[in-house]
């Protein structure tokens, strides 16, 4: 298994991606890691690198402010496009990047290509939940608008992912909505509801945003517009809560003592809310494993992304999704 990592993308490139890759290479010696980027900048960071790490030179970098389609088409020798090409040509089993999200989506579509039968790929990310198993939410921003049929495809892909990667035997799939009743929502969710009822999944019905973190489902389906607003709201709320707690617990000597007593519990809570613990967001529907790390990912996040990719490849995630949609295309029983 070979995993390509775009080490030039993200806020802390290339140091953190390289550090995370080295930690992952030592943890899982059965995985070959190809670091894609400017070799001159990478070599000083690779002292003592294990034998299962190699460098694939790429002279260009797609920047955060680059227009996605133009950048992918013009910067053929960028680290992101080169990593995508390695997946396309089967020289790599997966690719990981913390770079420009739009450009990575474009790389997936134009370089790697879609799975037959998939209308639009979806960006799926793990959200924390009370049950500790987390919730896979998709789409979280790859497509601002979606059709009922596309939401149905998201639901099927998300269900396969949770089964193959997380080992959940019968994942519960929920539809993000403003109420739990079948007739609630806008035209999109109303039209999607009966499709999900008939799909080869365990459909748990509509899920309100306030119930998401309570673990109301294992897979949450939504369009990219609503999903991205929900994600940013959760990130903002978590940031505010931790900042407010820090202010209160450092206010007096007594509160500092209380903080010392509560520290183990607070640390567990922070870990549960930490995106770096969940690795990366897979771009489901692409004919190759493409994983998107948060732009500010550190070494731990990249290491966890490699762990995630390793599990997905070993459990044949992309093949399972392709097989399911081949049945749909052929009109076979689901």
TrEMBL record:
Compartments, as annotated in UniProt: Cytoplasm
Chief location category: cytoplasm
EC numbers for this chain: 2.3.1.274
Catalysed reactions listed for this entry: a fatty acyl-[ACP] + phosphate = an acyl phosphate + holo-[ACP]
Top-rank EC class of the record's enzyme: transferase
Pathway: Lipid metabolism; phospholipid metabolism
SUPFAM superfamilies: Isocitrate/Isopropylmalate dehydrogenase-like
Assigned keywords, A-Z: Acyltransferase, Cytoplasm, Lipid biosynthesis, Lipid metabolism, Phospholipid biosynthesis, Phospholipid metabolism, Transferase
Domain of life: Bacteria
An example molecular function term from Gene Ontology annotations: phosphate:acyl-[acyl carrier protein] acyltransferase activity
InterPro entries xref list: FA_synthesis, Phospholipid_synth_PlsX-like
Subunit structure: Homodimer. Probably interacts with PlsY.
Family to which this protein belongs: Belongs to the PlsX family.
Functional summary from the UniProt entry: Catalyzes the reversible formation of acyl-phosphate (acyl-PO(4)) from acyl-[acyl-carrier-protein] (acyl-ACP). This enzyme utilizes acyl-ACP as fatty acyl donor, but not acyl-CoA.
Protein name as it appears in the record: Phosphate acyltransferase
Originating species: Paenibacillus chartarius
The encoding gene: plsX
């Amino acid at each position: 298994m070979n995993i390509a990592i775009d080490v030039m993308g993200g806020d802390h490139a290339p140091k953190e991606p390289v550090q995370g890759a080295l930690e992952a290479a030592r943890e899982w010696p059965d995985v070959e890691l190809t670091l894609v980027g400017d070799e001159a900048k990478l070599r000083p960071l690779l002292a003592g690198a294990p034998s299962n790490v190699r460098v694939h030179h790429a002279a260009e970098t797609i920047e955060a402010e680059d227009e996605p389609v133009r950048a992918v088409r013009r910067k053929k020798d960028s680290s992101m496009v080169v990593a995508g090409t390695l997946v396309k040509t089967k020289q790599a089993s997966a690719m990981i990047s913390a770079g420009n999200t739009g450009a990575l989506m474009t790389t997936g579509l134009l370089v790697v290509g879609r799975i037959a039968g998939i209308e639009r790929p979806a960006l799926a990310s793990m959200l924390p939940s009370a049950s500790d198993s987390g919730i896979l939410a998709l789409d979280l921003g790859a497509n601002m608008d979606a059709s009922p049929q596309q939401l149905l495809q998201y639901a099927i892909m998300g269900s396969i992912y949770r089964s193959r990667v997380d080992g959940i035997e019968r994942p519960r799939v929920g539809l993000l909505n403003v109420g739990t009743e079948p007739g609630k929502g806008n035209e999109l969710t109303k039209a999607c509801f009966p499709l999900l009822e008939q799909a080869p999944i365990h459909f748990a019905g509509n899920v309100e945003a306030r119930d998401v973190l309570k673990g109301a489902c294992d897979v949450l389906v939504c369009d990219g517009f609503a999903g991205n607003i929900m994600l940013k709201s959760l990130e903002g709320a978590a940031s505010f809560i931790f900042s407010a707690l820090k202010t209160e617990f450092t206010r007096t000597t007594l509160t500092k003592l209380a903080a010392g007593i509560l520290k183990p519990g607070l640390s567990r809570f922070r870990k549960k809310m930490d995106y770096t613990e969940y690795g990366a967001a897979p771009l489901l529907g692409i004919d190759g494993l493409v994983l998107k790390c948060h732009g500010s990912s550190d070494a731990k996040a990249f290491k966890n992304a490699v762990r995630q990719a390793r599990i997905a490849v070993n459990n044949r995630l992309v093949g399972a999704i392709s097989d399911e949609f081949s049945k749909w295309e052929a009109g076979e029983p689901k």
